[in-house]
Amino acid sequence: MWQLLSLDGVNGTLPQDAPDILENADIIIIPDNDAVGKTYSEEVANYLSKSNIIKILDLTKEWPSLKEKGDITDVFEMVNNDEDVLIKLEKLEKETNIYNKDIKLKKAKIKKWEKEEHEELQVYKEKISIGNEEININLKVPYNYSIKDGKILQRIRSGKKYKWVGFSNSLVLIKSILENIDTGEQKLELIYYKPNKKEWKILKVDKNIINNKHSILTLGNKGIPVTSNNSPSWIGFLTELEQENYDNIPTIRTVDRLGWIDNNIFIPYVNEDVKLEAEENATSWLEGFKSKGTLEKWIKVMKPLRENDIFRCVLASGFVPPLLKYIGARTFIVNIWGSSKSGKSASLYASLSAWR
User: DSSP assignment of 172-232, as one string?
Assistant: First the structure.
């Protein structure tokens, strides 16, 4: 079975144990359409010395109009027919000769990779405040990136050497991973610094946004300096940042609905380990489910009001929703009728106050 490695130019990195993981695997490498991509793909091919068969595909043989530095993503967008692309990829793979590994180059590159992988990663530590929340940052910075003076730097190749260049004056880090209990889908909770306002912000994004060089551009609307030129660098930084800190970044279980999650968790309030979440354009309703006041004061205020039979009925109805599961009912309706200013709305608000 073929293993597909799609490497983003010189930004791609492989773990030290990659040759062992992919031992005896048949591998296809699809480089970017430029000299740097070709050279890098050959370096990787030689590094994976234990692989059985390696082929490096030249996309221009099937798609000669592919732009310089273009990759397989550009091919899919250019053709706009996934099935046609896959058929031609299969044809291209069959027509491509097996890569003949250069033994001398292989040994040199293995030494280089091993040296780089053994270099100690930078650890970024900082304590920041966002509203009333204190956040302790302790993250390993990916190998090809560095954080200095509040800026993100990237290591790129310049001729035969490497140099550090800055691609962001705004620091963006991963605070936590949000995983939906019902769907298993994950989001990243990012924290980023806005130098012009001298403040930190929190942003929740779907993982598919930071993995695509086009969709990641939408982060620019939130104040993160993502452009079409640096979007590959942002993808590399954020995805590698998550990988390097996978065991360090907390995973928070979330749910986007109210009610019972299982026999022990009722949302909201019952379990602090599960966080109630909503889509960005519907977060206002979450404000109504935050604890406020004390139970003692609530009982004191409600006690004399319960002497009114109608109010007592309305108040009791507010406690029914958690019990529907046990009585086998999907819903219920309480119809309150009365003249204007008779206290209908006040009774409903009082009933809802039990959940605040």
Answer: EEEEEEEEETTT--EEEEEEEEETTTTEEEEEEEEHHHHTSTTGGGGGGGGT----TTTHH
User: What pLDDT is recorded for position 18?
Assistant: 67
Per-residue pLDDT for 116 more than 80? no
Q: Give phi and psi for 124, each to the nearest 5.
A: -100, 120
* Residues across the chain: 356
DSSP state of 62: T
203: Cβ contacts below 8 Å, ≥ 6 apart: 189, 190, 191, 192, 219, 222, 224
Contact indicator for 81, 121 with CB cutoff of 8 Å: no
**pLDDT tens profile 229-282:** 888 889 889 988 998 898 889 998 888 877 777 777 777 665 567 777 766 555
Extract long-range pairs of 181-186: CB within 8 Å, 24+ residues apart. Answer: 181/253, 181/254, 181/255, 181/261, 181/274, 182/255, 182/256, 182/257
Q: pLDDT tens digit string along 132-188?
A: 888 899 999 988 899 998 899 998 877 777 888 888 988 999 999 998 888 888 899
Enter the tokens of residue 155. Answer: 């290591």
CA–CA distance, 66 with 187 (Å, rounded to integer): 33
Name residue 157's beta-bridge partners.
Answer: 162
pTM: predicted TM-score of the whole model, two decimal places? 0.56
Tokens of 81: 């027919």
What is the DSSP secondary structure assignment for residue 21, as one 8-state letter?
Answer: H
SS3 33: coil
